[in-house]
């Protein structure tokens, strides 16, 4: 205990009596290294989570129920929705019909400037859909649908064109609310609709989709109380697999899938971003460790004469080594503490109020707890090594070598 106390005393005096500028600079380097470890990784994690949330909030919900035979319908769909909504944790469900349609838009109404495009049409119960997806919140022109609408349609910006869409050349060339479009369905039925609203969800799959009411789609398909899919929103207190298991235990014979099975190419993007994030984090950890080692190593190297004098007056080598390890750990702990304060107290709140504007949505910093823990462990380990290795090397020299170099 006396030796440990002596190590603490020497470490404390080394910090207090040392050059204050050097001490502050060392702590600043530690702080920046820690922030660098978390910052870019947090942005990429926020980007991945934003893309995933867009899929859940704008098209798929958390869980999707489909008929066993993809070419048929879910029969008695209202009973199915009542059944799934009885499960604790389920917020709401919405039944959809889906169809393909050839859209035609005669901009000048004289046949001289006609644009066409084939798009997916999803029918909804508008009032119920508000509880499951955020399409009603994404309206950028016009209005959202009403449950009784029959001759009106809601289209995404990549169908309408003219709203900075990603597929302008494939769009209808500038549809605005109030314009009339003609839709030829796959079963040969053709209907004319007034565009009631245009939305921008910032999710490509939904922005190339049109919405109309279930009442209208049932008249086109000649069916009732059916659905091509039922999407379910849950409170996410449990994983989607847990809800799927409960639905199956209730006797549902339909096919049930989690949202991520439908993400398609977006899922490939998120997997790529996750891989990039892992690689960048690994590189940042290595750079941080090396930076800390170099800073502390130079600091100890400049005190080699002091180490030699301590040895000359009879201080044990182990006490000297431990004192420098404690100094290095002090720098590491100080840097970690300040880094956490900056991240949690300044950067994260700032980006909550001022998110980064990406084409896929607003991205905020999302700091993963396991990454914080890993960063702390790595910096503490780097601090220990950077204090132990050079101090051990200096104490192994003879007293004359340590003092005079």
From TrEMBL:
**Main location (coarse class):** membrane
**Assigned GO CC terms:** plasma membrane protein complex
- Sequence intervals crossing the membrane: 21-48, 279-300, 328-352, 372-391
Q: What is the organism field in this record?
A: candidate division WWE3 bacterium GW2011_GWF1_42_14
Q: Which GO terms describe its biological process?
A: lipoprotein localization to outer membrane
Is Zinc one of the keywords UniProt gives this record? no
Similarity comment text for this entry: Belongs to the ABC-4 integral membrane protein family. LolC/E subfamily.
Name of this protein: ABC transporter permease protein
Arranged from A to Z, the UniProt key words for this protein are: Cell membrane, Membrane, Transmembrane, Transmembrane helix
């Amino acid at each position: 205990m006396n030796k440990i106390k002596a190590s603490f005393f020497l470490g404390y005096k080394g910090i207090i009596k040392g050059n204050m500028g050097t001490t502050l600079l060392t702590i600043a380097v530690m702080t920046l290294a820690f922030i660098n470890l978390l910052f870019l990784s947090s942005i990429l994690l926020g980007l991945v989570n934003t893309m995933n949330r867009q899929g859940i909030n704008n098209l798929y919900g958390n869980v999707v129920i489909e008929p066993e035979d993809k070419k048929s319908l879910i029969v008695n769909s209202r009973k199915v929705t009542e059944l799934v909504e009885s499960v604790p944790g389920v917020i709401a469900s919405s039944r959809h019909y889906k169809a393909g349609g050839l859209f035609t838009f005669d901009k000048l109404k004289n046949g001289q400037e006609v644009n066409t495009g084939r798009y997916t049409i999803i029918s909804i119960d508008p009032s119920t859909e508000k509880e499951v997806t955020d399409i009603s919140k994404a309206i950028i022109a016009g209005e959202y649908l009403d449950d009784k609408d029959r001759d009106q349609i809601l289209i995404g910006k990549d169908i309408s064109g003219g709203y900075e869409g990603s597929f302008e050349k494939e769009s209808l060339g500038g549809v605005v609310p109030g314009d009339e479009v003609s839709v030829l369905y796959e079963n040969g039925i053709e209907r004319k609709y007034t565009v009631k609203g245009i939305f921008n969800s910032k999710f490509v799959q939904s922005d190339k989709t049109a919405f109309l009411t279930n009442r209208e789609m049932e008249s086109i398909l000649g069916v009732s109380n059916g659905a091509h899919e039922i999407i379910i929103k849950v409170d996410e207190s449990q994983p989607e697999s847990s809800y799927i298991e409960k639905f199956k235990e209730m006797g549902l014979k339909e096919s049930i899938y989690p949202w991520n099975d439908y993400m398609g190419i977006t899922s490939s993007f998120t997997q790529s971003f996750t891989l990039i994030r892992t690689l960048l984090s690994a590189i940042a950890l290595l750079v941080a460790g090396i930076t800390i080692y170099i800073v502390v190593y130079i600091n100890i190297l400049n005190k080699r004469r002091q180490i030699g004098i301590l040895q000359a007056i009879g201080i044990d080598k182990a006490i000297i080594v431990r004192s420098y390890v404690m100094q290095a750990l002090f720098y590491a702990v100080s840097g970690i503490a300040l880094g956490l304060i900056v991240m949690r107290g300044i950067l994260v709140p700032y980006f909550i109020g001022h998110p980064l504007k990406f084409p896929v949505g607003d991205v905020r910093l999302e700091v993963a707890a396991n990454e914080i823990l890993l960063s702390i462990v790595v910096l503490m380990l780097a601090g220990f090594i950077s204090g132990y290795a050079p101090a051990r090397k200096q104490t192994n020299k003879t007293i004359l070598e340590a003092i005079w170099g």
